[in-house]
Structures are given as structure tokens and as C-alpha cells.
UniProtKB/TrEMBL annotation:
Transmembrane feature ranges: none
Stored PANTHER family: CO-CHAPERONE PROTEIN DAF-41, TELOMERASE-BINDING PROTEIN P23 HSP90 CO-CHAPERONE
Name of the protein this chain belongs to: CS domain-containing protein
Acidic residues: bias regions: 114-127, 145-161
Originating organism: Batillaria attramentaria
One Pfam family in the UniProt entry: CS
Family: Belongs to the p23/wos2 family.
Length: 161
């Protein structure tokens, strides 16, 4: 990863990398730039390199990052990065470098482990809809007001001493 430095006259300032999240499937990689109030974002994707620059965040400062990705991607698709070898195993990390970058986080909303089912989950997964179809929580079964049923095993048990 190349850190960016801006110089204005004699003073030089370090440009921060933007916060990132990433997730993957066997054939795809997602990178989400989570920079609030981002203005003038610029991005570029070549071979196995991801570049981003934008101004934003709570301090409204410049952010820039260039990452050498772990493997090659198909640059024709940006938002979902297609791995060049779609039968490849899962990447152990997003970048070639094995060091941990503080600004890259795992996107657990999209993450799925390598040994999970290959069947893609619906992108519009809705927990309320699932619970309703199972008869629970939203107008389905009322667990709090159910009458207590006696189990035949509970009849006339002796008190514990």
C-alpha cells in the first residue's frame, strides 16, 4: 500500500486512507468505502490494484489509498470485483501485504465463509418477513400470553429436600 503525501510549499501533510470494508465469495470481492459526506470521489481499478481518493469524513479531509489486491480481478466490473480465477480458493486477506491495515474492516453483512453453502442468499433478506412466515413475533404466535400447559411428566412430582 502506498501512503499518499501532499506537499504545499515547505509543509507536507499526510493524506489519510479512507475507512474500508470488504467481503468475498468464491468468485467475487466487495470493497465498500465508508467515508461519510464524501465529495469528488475518484476511483480506479487495474489488474490487481484498487485506488480511491475523496474528501470527507468528520474532519472533511482528503483521503487516498492505493491497494495491491491479493489476486487479479476483472476491471470491467467495479462494485463487485470478479476474481480472475473464479475457481480459486478464498483469499486469506484482501491485500498482498500480510500486515493488518487499521482502516480495512470485514463487511460482515456480506461475508460468508468458504465452507458455507454455495447457494446465494437473497439480497433483500428480511427478518420480519421470515418470522411472519414462521408464525412468530409480528402478529403470529404470542409466546408471552400462552396458557401454561401441563406436561404429563410434571404430574405430582415430590418436593426436593
Amino acid at each position: 500500500m502506498a501512503a499518499a503525501t501532499k506537499s504545499s510549499g515547505d509543509a507536507s501533510t499526510h493524506v489519510l486512507p479512507p475507512p474500508l470494508e470488504w467481503a468475498q465469495r468464491k468468485d467475487k470481492v466487495w470493497i465498500t468505502v465508508t467515508l461519510e459526506n464524501c465529495r469528488d470521489p475518484k476511483h480506479e481499478l487495474k489488474g490487481n490494484t484498487f485506488y480511491f481518493r475523496g474528501k470527507g469524513g468528520t474532519d472533511n479531509t482528503d483521503h487516498e489509498v492505493t491497494l495491491e489486491l491479493y489476486g487479479d480481478i476483472d476491471p470491467e466490473i467495479f462494485f463487485t470485483l470478479i476474481k480472475k480465477d473464479q475457481n480459486a480458493s478464498y483469499w486469506p486477506r484482501l491485500t498482498k501485504e500480510s500486515k493488518k491495515f487499521h482502516f480495512i474492516k470485514t463487511d460482515f453483512n456480506r461475508w460468508r465463509d468458504e465452507d458455507d453453502s454455495d447457494q446465494e442468499e437473497k439480497e433483500d433478506f428480511n427478518l420480519d418477513e421470515m418470522m411472519n412466515s414462521m408464525g412468530g413475533l409480528n402478529g403470529g404466535a404470542d409466546f408471552g400470553a400462552a396458557e401454561e400447559e401441563q406436561d404429563s411428566d410434571d404430574e405430582d412430582l415430590p418436593d426436593l429436600q
